[in-house]
Structure formats: structure tokens, C-alpha cells
Design a protein that fits this description.
Two copies of one chain form a homodimer.
Chain A: H1 5-9, H2 20-23, E1 27-31, H3 40-50, E2 56-60, E3 66-67, E4 70-71, E5 84-87, H4 91-103, E6 108-111, H5 121-136, E7 140-143, E8 148-151, E9 156-159, E10 168-175, H6 178-190, E11 195-200, H7 209-218, E12 224-229, H8 235-245, E13 251-255, E14 265-267, E15 273-275, H9 276-286, E16 290-292, H10 295-308, E17 316-320, H11 323-330, H12 344-354, E18 366-367, H13 375-387, E19 393-399, H14 406-416, E20 420-425, H15 428-431, H16 434-441, E21 446-447, H17 450-471, E22 480-482, H18 494-503, E23 511-514, H19 517-527, E24 531-536, E25 549-553, H20 556-569, E26 574-579, E27 585-594, E28 598-605, E29 616-619, H21 624-632, H22 651-663, E30 664-666, E31 671-682, E32 685-688, E33 691-695
Parallel strand pairs in A: 1-2, 1-5, 5-6, 6-7, 10-11, 10-12, 12-13, 13-16, 17-18, 17-19, 19-20, 20-21, 22-30
Antiparallel strand pairs in A: 3-4, 8-9, 8-11, 14-15, 23-26, 24-25, 24-26, 27-28, 27-31, 28-29, 31-32, 31-33
Chain lengths: ~700, ~700
């Protein structure tokens, strides 16, 4: 494994801002605090006071002397030194109040008020002013339009919707939606997963996902980071930062936008379509960010990662006295784990105990049925199973009404030191309590359904892969700088595009531009048959459709015929003579300018099937390992593996090409789009047969 | 809508057995009852006694005078009239005891004991004897190897693992796994969904899924049927029965077997592969059975179906004061619902109330934000929204910590009469209680996550579609009987296969079998160019691979050349001369003998992509509407819709062909396999270009 040492030193080089004054303040002023129940000013003050915060709290409102038992102040100026101001007023006065805070040295602010950018230009103007004040004064600003935040470790809840919290723990959440953030809190509590910080990002007026991610990366009480994301313009920065964090702490994102109506489809003019979600998906994968599909899915993953920690391998031993849920879980594990058979020694230990009992099939998953109902027998079997050197981790299943093997799991965990994940078939109400907490404290996450057990296991497998991928990522190579200033048009023609690619060291098909019969005969001699003839024209968008391409020319006669017919129809255009390549797998490699991630690279199947599958993607520039990972995510994978008699694609060779494509820059100009369609791949031999480059302004 | 009246009369024509004595017994004997805690004989007696059952209970064990306060009997013979016997003994004595029960007229039995068929031939022999005794005496037998059953309405729990139950309700469960069945019970309880019956099917020694389904179909206290299924040989019967039940009661199945290791892939020798799960999936769809992917998914669907009931349309209005979870739910609804904009009248009513308040975007989903926090305003808005004639049903979202709009939902439901599904973002512990129960009683299911709200909504949409599909199914046409006795081989050659298909009225391509140059010239004259030449031989498995096919012959010279080369290599074989068909969409229609469902029909894409997509499937014979539904389930659908310039496939024409294929029978012989590969489809013009039929023994 090539470890990129850089990752192991620090999380981040760039320091955004010290957010301690925001999330761990020594004192808080609530500006616009109120005694009227249900008002924003009341809710925030009450939230802070009720949460058990031990720092200083200053209500600010000239109309009160005292609020909730605390002395009330006329203005922020009359208090003195304050770390954090919560500005719980309407948006029109919020700006002046924020300015006042800045003037007296308040270090951080929370602005819950909405009605800014999201309601139109007037609001956006106000929001710009707020950003300016905070930015110029170095204030850490949460909001606008935020539900607030929670620091569970110091018992501080600044939350529009204060509520029952999970216990103190090591999972922290960043949420772009208040409601979905609360949903995650609810399920963390229901699942007995402890929480450290909860951050409602709101309008991201100043601070955005990258800053919060950096803060949580450095936060010692956070070991696992979860996020609900609608979308951010700074997603690329978020991902790059995540790649540095992932080897230390897992990052799991539940990204909204599955349906076409919520997502959008960026279709380039050559038909290579990649949805916004596709770009996010590729970027997350490339940077080691795990993903989740629902609140419960996210919480099941966070639970395994926070409680069970890392796994050292993927040999899974499953043990139970109730087969059904165990098999149901195994059914979902797919390629994530292997279930090796127990060792002979393990079988012998089981048989010793079972002498005379009804015959049991001793295999993995191991179902000891009734023989596992008593604490003693369960312990005996589980110890032996956990000790089997063939297993890297265990998954166990029990059911309410029969033995809940709390003590047995604790002992097996202690004895073997292996990760154990457990499913107790029960309802959440039954299992809510101290026995589960004890197991969680010992590093054994408890699920109540087989399927969520599987999701938890899969998260551990995915995280192991993500860390490996990031550590093997290697360094990005420098830009490949090419010049295209001599090409006047913004859309380069096929030959010009290939010249650029050839200059960048890419394998373009051998070809000649010819403008006369003589030149063509010369090209025929140099290239040899079979040949392809194309009209070379910027004015023809779909050459094949109008008969401007003739493939598989195998003799001089046909070549001449084709020349004549081209010249008749397009007398003023040049002709491209190409060596014809037969067979191979058609692949499309593209570069497009994604509105969020900027330059991204896409990989798709070519030919007839091109429109049936979404391409996989990554953010440019890519390392070689990134490209391998993009290739591994291509659908359908079958196409790469010698489908229907084709030579299997050499993934390293394809990755080399992609890596170079991802690094190409045009001197003094931008690349809006590159479309290598197709690249014909035969094993490790690649030929770019057609290409198009579009420059940007 | 063509209503098939037959479905609306009765659920089932065939009567299996009266199961009332089993599930609603007036008296129960527990044979092998014991006072020893933890023993099977103790657990079952205790389960019955503790559950509050009001009928007579007779412990049977000569070693006791009394057990759990009940008089104990020496034998079943000493009791007299008994409806149900629970035989809680080891398997060796169970047979004699069952026989004793039969002799004294016991009507039903539960045998929890395992160790029969599942452990080998000796056990299987015992099991056959048990089946024989029960069958001959008309005893309703649950088990062997069952966890038991629950009749929640009479407070009877005969359950190895007695536990906390959901309230009395109308959902009934059939489970092939005890553990998964208990998992479903747990989640029904957690979700506040009432339960009627729970049946652990065990080894299905006598009674199987079809009998239990029929019982629940007729059971008045059951309105929705859920099942966890591993697999049953009688799945076809189950599906056929389900099709009769679905218009009256929804049936939802969670079928295990997603992964390749749990599933198996039935690959025919021509490469048409359909997994066992594929056959189940097709059969479920064809017969209107809904499916679920996990315990929580199943329970979320049962919840919507049992509590909200049927929907009359798919125009969905979404209403909330918290946008995030609402949009997250909407994001998952895909094609299941449309979200029309509220009417002008509705907008006006909203605006009237909002005068002077911050501007709110009035659209669907409707987020009234802070203006919906008070009971009065929430009620005002919700009433107006629910009254909008553009909405067939409503989905609403609230969050713990803010208004839980119980009374408002009740009023809106009462006022509008429309289905309402609600998500209250909270943990299950917070929401567990009487307020939720009140809403459930009023027909408003409450979910705690946005995603499960979406699953519930989707279930209602799926059920609406399933009922429509079943009611439009029409009648099956009679068999198409063809004769093939004159074909000696079990594998018919291409031409023989096509003769059968032509006899059945199917559009085979025009062709001639020729054995001499003269015959070929005659065929050339009759058919005209372009032509295809194939060596006609049973001995060549993959003709194309060995050069025994030549397509696109456009002149006499090439025809002769090809003839000569074929004759040189295969001198003794006949040659097939076919009219060549250019263009069109290649489709594969197949018939295979599925080990579970018998004759099934498959539909897949042909050509290069054939191995990339699993075919869709249905059980033979199919109605025309079944075939439309199989076509609608084909992946990828794009291929049918004019992909890349092809003429869109006429679904009716293809369905007609499939419907006939599904009805073909060979006189006095069986069809093991039919492979129409490809059928070339150009709009409504279809040609079977290649075909193969394999007869069975």
C-alpha cells in the first residue's frame, strides 16, 4: 500500500476560522430575547437556559429587567465581553444589531431569521450586507435562516425546536435542512447512538459545509461525521477536505435529489449526460465519502461506524439461535463480505458440547437453535466462534422473548477483541434502555432489524474500502499544458481536437487531413487499408446521419468513389483519412464543466448502448487510483470483462488515459467540454477514434 | 374498464379446508404440557394461559394432576371433545399422539417440533407419516417446525416465543421464518399498526401458503395480508389465489433471496437467464401481489394499506410547516404521484389569511412555515388545502417540538373525506401512545420519517394499479394445441420450431429448406433478395460462431458462393434460405420450465445487449393484459420507445404475440423450452427470425 503520508499528518492545511467561540462559547447574549412564549426571542433563550448550559447567558431587550430568572440588558454594548450573540429579531434590524456586536468584539453569531436570499433580490441584498459585516470582522456566523446548533457535550442547545436529545456521544451532524436534521436526531436517540454536535447550516451566508467539516474534523469529541445535504456550490472543497479527513474519521452524506424533478440532467450537446447527482456521487466516491439513502440508512451507518469502529478484514462469522433474520441479513451483504466456513477446531468444540443433542448443521451462518437459549451454552458457543481465526468480525442475532445475550456478547468481545455487531429482533420501545447502552459502550452496536444490521455491516466494509482507496490515491500529477490559440473557433474540429490530445500524449488513431486527390493517395499509401473517410467540417454536427462518414474501405476503388461523392456534396471541405480499427470495446471518455464541481471527467459505454447507462464520474484532476475507481463504478461492468467475446479491457491502461485527460489544460483558455467518443479498447491497446473539444470563453 | 365479474363474486372457488378449528378453537389440549420452566411443554401452555384465551384449555401429561392452575389429563382420550391439540413433545412420539388425536376427532393440530424434512431422509419419512395422518383424517395441521400462531382478536397466543403484541387490528401476517415473523410483529407494534392473525408456517407439512391465504381472505377481521416468504413449491397456486383476493384485500410479500448465493440462476442453454427471484417477481406483478424489500418497508406498506385504505386518484397535495422532510418524501415518489399546483381559490384563501405576513411561496408542496405553528392557523390552511378539488389525497408533515396537529388532521379528514398520510418527525418512543392511536383509528397513518411516508404513499399507488390491472386482466384464452409428434428429436431444429410457431398463428419469417442447388434457386426466385443462408443442423449449437450463417446476401453470385462453402464444410446438411429483415428492434421471447412456477414466459432485449439485462417474466398462460404488464416491466424500457431512431415497438402487437406463445401446447408432449430469438419488431410488424423449441419427456 502506497501511503500518502501527507494525509496522516494533519486534517487540513488551510485554516478557515476558529469556530470554538461559536460552538463552545464561554458566554452567550440573546438579542431580542422575549418573555412571550412562542416568540422566537423566547424560544431561543429558553432553549439555552433549559439545556443546562453552564456559561454566562445574557438576555438583551430594553423592555425587560429580567427574563427566565436572568438579568436582562438594554443592548449588547452594555454587557462587555461576549463570545456568541444569538440575534433573534426580524431581518430588518438584524443587520444593525450584527454591526453593534462586531463593534464590541463579539466573536460569533447565530442568525435564525429567514427571508433573505431565498425570497428574492431584496433579501439577497440584505444577506450580502450581513456576510460583509461578519466577514470583515472575522465573526463566525451560523445562518441566516438556521434552526441553530447543539453542543451535546457542554449541554448547550441553541435550537428553534429544542427537543429530546440522544446521549452524549461521538457522532456529529451537519444538516442543510432543519427538519431532516431533527429527523436524524430523533433516530439517533431511538437507536441509542450518542451525539456530539448538531449544526443546522441554514442559508450558509458565511460559513458553509467545508468550514463545519473542518471544525468537526478537529473536534476531539467527534469521531464520525454525518451530513444531510441538499447541495452546495462549495461541494468540491467539501470533498477535497473530506479526503483528508476520511483516513481519520468517516464522513457519511445523505444527499437529496434522486428524482428527475429535484435533480437536473446536464446533457452536453454530444449527448453525454450526467445528472447533478451523478457528479456528486462520483465526487463522494473519489474522496472517500460514504453515502446513505434515507434517515434510517444514515443512522444505521453512523451507528456501526461510531460504535463498532474499524474492521481489519472482511471475513464475517454469523452466529445465532434464529436462522431467518440471520439469513435475511446475509442475503443483503453481496460482495461486501465473505462468509468462510468455521475451522475444524471450531466445529470440534461445538460437537463436544452437542454430544447427544439433535443433529445441527455446523456452518456459517451458524444457527445453534434451541441449544443457544441458555446463557451458558450461548456463551460456550459464541466464545468458540469468536475465537475462530478465520473470522475478522462477527454478526450475531437474537430475538426478544428469548435470551438477550448481553453478558455473553460483552465477554466474547472482551475475549476476542473482534468487532461484533448484533441484531436483537424487537421493537425500539422494548430495547430502549440501559442494557443496550452497556453494549454500545462496549463497542457492540445493537440493531432491531436484520436489514439494518446488514446496512451497518456494509458501512464498515465501505469505510475500509474508502480508507484504502484514499491512502492509495497517490499524488496528483501536474497539469498537462497544451496550446490551442492557433485554433480560432471555440469548437475545434475532429482533427484539431485530436492534435491537442496527441500533444498531451494520448493515443489518437493515425489519420491525415487531405485536400486533394493526390494527398489522399499519399495517405492511402502511408496508412494502408482498411480505411475510414470522413468529411472534416465544423458545419456538420452529426456526420454519420448525413452520409459524411464511410467506414471499412478496403480497396482503392471504393476510396476513390467515396472521395468523389464527398467532393460532389461538400466541395469546399477537407477530408479526413483514418486507419480503420476493427473490434474492441467502445468507451466514451468525456470532460464537462459541471456547475458545482467545475471540470469533471466522465466515463461511459460507447456505441449503441451509450444512452442507456449513466456515465460514472470524477472531479478533475484525478489521480490514477481515482480513475481506477471511476472505472470500477462504470455501468455495466460486464462490458469491461470480455463481454460476448471481446478482449477484456485493461483497466490500468484505460486509467492512464483518463488520468491524462483529467489533467489537460489549454493555455490561456478554458476547456468547456471534451468528448473522446469512442475510445476503442482492445486489452491494453487504446485508440481515440473520434474526438471533440470545445473551448470556453 | 373491463371488469372481470368473476373476481367480484367470491375469493376462491376451491375450498381447501376449514381452518376455524385451528385458528379460532373453542378448546385446546396441550399434549406434553409441563411444569418445568423453559421446556417446550411449559412454554406453549403458559403462552396460551397468559394470552387471555377464554376457551377451554386442557393440559395433557400423566405425570401431573394440575398445571398452571388447570386440571391435567392423562391422555387426549380422557378429555372428550377438543378442537385443537398442540403436540409439544419430541418428534418420535408426536406421530402416535397425532394418531390418537385423530381417533378421538380432534379437528386441528399444531406441531412445533422440528427435526423432520430439514434434517434428512429419516426425518422426511416421519414427516410423510404425519402428513398422511392429518390428511386422511381431515385435520388442519399447522407445522411441523412452526413457532405457532396468534389470533389477536380472541387473545390467543400459541407461540414458542410469546411477546408484546400490537393492538387488535386488521393486518394479518403469514411468515415462513419464525424470527422474521417476530420481527414483523415487533415493528407493527412499534409503528402502532393493529394485527389480527399471525401464522408461522413452519415446514408446511400439510397446510401451506395457499391455505393460509385463503383463510385470511375469508377472515372478516383481516383487511390486509402481509407475508414473509422464503419460497414454496406452491407459489403458482398462491399467486393465482392472490389475484382473486387482491381486488378485495391487498397482499404484500417480502420475499427473501436477493443475492446470487441465496437465489439461483436458471440459465437455459440458449443463454436466456431468469433468476428464481425473477420468476417470483413476474408472478407477483402479474397477479397483483405487492412486494416489499425489508421488514420496515413491509410494515410501512401494510400501515398505509390498513389504515388509509384505498385512494381514488394520484393527485397528491403535500402540506407542511417544515420543508426539508416534505421535499425528501416528494423526491422518492417518482412516477407514482403527480403534485398539481393548488387551485386559484385555494391560493386566495391562503392569501386572505396571510395578509401582511412575510411573503410565502404558495405552491405544492405547500410550506406555510411559522404561519402553521398555531392550531388555528394550521387548521385554517389545512382545511383549505384538503378542500382543493385538485387533490385526491394529502400527505402532511410536522415535527416534534412544534405543533403535533392531531385535532387539525382529524378535522381535515372528516371535512374532506380524503385519504391523509402524516409524518411526524420524531422518535418512536416519543410518538408511542394514544394520540397516534386516535389518528390511526380515524384512518390517518402516522410515520416518523419522510422516507417511510413515501413508502406508504407508494404502496397506495401500487395497490391502485394492481387492482386496476387485475380487474382489466380479462379471461385466459384456451390452449393453442399443436402437434409435433412427427418431429423425432427432443430438440426441434430451427425450421421445425418455426413450423410449430406458424401453426400456432405466429408471424415467422418466410423461409425455405433446400437440399439442392435447384431448390435454392427456386427459393431465391420466390423470396427475393436480400437473403440469409443458414446451415440447418441440430448438431451445430452456435451457428454464427462456426460460420454456418451468412446474412445480407444481395446477389445470386454471393448466394452461390455461400452455398458452395456450406456444402464443402457440411455436405450432408440441409440449408435454410430466409428473407433478410433489416432494422427493427430485436426482442427475445422465451418459454422456460421454472422449477417453481412451471411454464413461464420471458421477455428480454435481443442482440448485443441480451446478457446485460434480466428478462421480465410471467406465468403461462397469460392474458393479453398480463403480457402488456410484462412488456411494461421490461428493462430497458428505452429500447421500446424509439431508441436511437428505431420505430417504437407497438406494445399491443407484441402482447398479442406473447399471449399466443404463452398458450401453445404440444399434443401429448411437454414443452421444456421455447426461444424466439430474435423477434424483430418494427412498429406493429413482427417477424420471428430464429427460434428453437425443446420438448420434454
Amino acid at each position: 500500500m502506497t501511503v500518502n503520508e501527507e494525509y496522516l499528518k494533519v486534517y487540513v492545511e488551510e485554516e478557515y476560522m476558529d469556530l470554538d467561540s461559536l460552538f463552545d462559547p464561554r458566554s452567550i447574549a440573546v438579542i431580542g430575547a422575549s418573555g412571550r412564549q412562542g416568540s422566537v426571542g423566547y424560544i431561543y433563550l429558553d432553549s439555552i437556559v433549559s439545556s443546562g448550559y453552564e456559561g454566562k447567558v445574557y438576555p438583551v431587550n430594553p423592555r425587560y429587567d429580567e427574563l427566565l430568572g436572568l438579568q436582562c440588558y438594554d443592548s449588547i454594548e452594555s454587557i462587555g465581553n461576549v463570545d456568541l450573540a444569538v440575534i433573534a429579531t426580524n431581518k430588518m434590524v438584524a443587520i444593525d444589531l450584527l454591526e453593534n456586536c462586531a463593534n464590541v468584539g463579539v466573536k460569533a453569531a447565530v442568525i435564525p431569521t429567514g427571508g433573505f436570499e431565498e425570497v428574492g433580490e431584496e433579501g439577497a441584498e440584505l444577506e450580502r450586507k450581513i456576510r460583509e459585516i461578519a466577514s470583515e470582522n472575522g465573526m463566525a456566523l451560523l445562518g441566516t435562516n438556521t434552526l441553530g446548533f447543539i453542543n451535546n457535550h457542554i449541554g448547550l442547545q441553541i435550537n428553534f425546536n429544542p427537543r429530546l436529545l440522544p446521549s452524549k456521544g461521538s457522532v456529529s451532524i451537519i444538516s442543510q435542512s432543519g427538519g431532516m436534521g431533527l429527523s436524524i436526531i430523533s433516530k439517533l436517540r431511538e437507536e441509542g447512538v450518542g451525539m456530539s454536535k448538531w449544526i443546522g447550516v441554514g442559508n450558509r451566508t458565511l460559513l458553509d459545509f467545508p468550514e463545519f467539516l473542518e471544525y468537526l474534523a478537529k473536534d476531539e469529541s467527534t469521531t464520525v461525521i454525518g451530513a444531510f445535504m441538499e447541495g452546495t456550490e462549495r461541494a468540491k472543497q467539501f470533498c477535497e477536505l473530506a479526503a483528508r479527513i476520511v483516513p481519520h474519521k468517516p464522513v457519511v452524506v445523505y444527499k437529496m435529489g434522486k428524482s428527475a424533478s429535484v435533480d437536473y440532467l446536464a446533457v452536453t450537446h454530444t449527448g453525454t449526460g450526467i445528472g447533478k447527482t451523478g457528479a456528486y456521487k462520483g465526487a463522494f466516491r473519489q474522496h472517500g465519502v460514504l453515502t446513505a439513502d434515507s434517515t434510517r440508512d444514515l443512522v444505521a451507518k453512523l451507528k456501526a461506524l461510531a460504535i463498532a469502529g474499524r474492521i481489519g478484514g472482511k471475513q464475517l462469522g454469523m452466529f445465532t439461535y434464529t436462522a431467518g433474520p440471520t439469513i435475511a441479513a446475509a442475503d443483503l451483504l453481496n460482495d461486501h463480505f465473505t462468509l468462510p466456513q468455521p475451522s475444524e477446531e471450531t466445529i470440534r468444540i461445538f460437537e463436544d458440547f452437542m454430544k447427544g443433542a439433535p443433529p445441527t448443521i455446523l456452518k456459517n451462518p451458524m444457527d445453534v437453535d434451541g441449544q443457544g437459549y441458555t446463557p451458558e451454552s450461548y456463551q460456550y458457543f459464541l466464545n468458540a466462534y469468536a475465537a475462530d481465526p478465520g473470522f475478522d468480525l462477527l454478526a450475531t442475532v437474537s430475538t426478544a422473548g428469548l435470551l438477550f445475550p448481553k453478558d455473553q456478547l460483552l465477554e466474547a468481545k472482551k475475549g476476542s477483541g473482534k468487532p461484533i455487531l448484533h441484531c436483537h429482533v424487537a421493537d425500539s420501545i422494548e430495547i430502549f434502555g440501559s442494557e443496550r447502552d452497556q453494549l454500545h459502550e462496549a463497542g457492540i452496536p445493537i440493531y432491531t432489524t436484520a436489514e439494518e444490521l446488514a446496512v451497518g455491516l456494509i458501512a464498515l466494509s465501505e469505510y475500509m474500502d474508502a480508507v484504502k482507496r484514499i491512502l492509495e490515491r497517490g499524488n496528483q500529477q501536474p497539469q498537462i499544458m497544451v496550446s490551442a490559440s492557433h485554433f480560432g473557433d471555440s469548437i475545434l474540429d475532429e482533427h484539431e481536437s485530436k492534435m491537442i490530445l496527441a500533444e498531451a500524449g494520448l493515443p489518437v488513431v493515425e489519420e491525415r487531413v487531405v485536400s486533394s486527390r493526390e494527398e489522399m493517395v499519399k495517405a492511402e499509401e502511408e496508412l494502408g487499408f482498411p480505411l475510414v473517410l470522413k468529411v472534416l467540417s465544423r458545419r456538420i454536427a452529426h456526420k454519420s446521419d448525413v452520409g459524411a462518414v464511410r467506414t471499412d474501405i478496403i480497396d482503392h476503388e471504393t476510396l476513390m468513389e467515396t472521395w468523389n461523392s464527398f467532393k460532389k456534396k461538400w466541395p469546399s471541405e477537407n477530408v479526413l483519412v483514418q486507419r480503420m480499427i476493427h473490434g474492441g470495446v467502445e468507451i466514451i471518455v468525456g470532460r464537462i464543466l459541471d456547475p458545482v464541481f467545475g471540470d469533471i471527467i466522465t466515463l461511459g459505454v460507447g456505441g449503441f448502448m451509450a444512452d442507456l447507462f449513466s456515465p460514472s464520474a470524477g472531479v478533475c484532476p484525478c489521480t490514477r487510483q481515482d480513475c481506477i475507481s471511476i472505472i470500477d463504478a462504470l455501468e455495466p461492468q460486464e462490458i469491461l470483462n470480455g463481454y460476448r467475446g471481446t478482449t477484456p479491457v485493461d483497466r490500468n491502461a484505460l486509467a492512464d488515459l483518463m488520468e491524462k485527460v483529467s489533467r489537460i489544460h489549454i493555455k490561456d483558455e478554458k476547456i468547456d467540454e471534451m468528448d473522446l467518443n469512442p475510445v476503442i479498447v482492445k486489452g491494453d491497446s487504446l485508440s481515440i477514434v473520434d474526438a471533440l473539444i470545445r473551448k470556453g470563453e
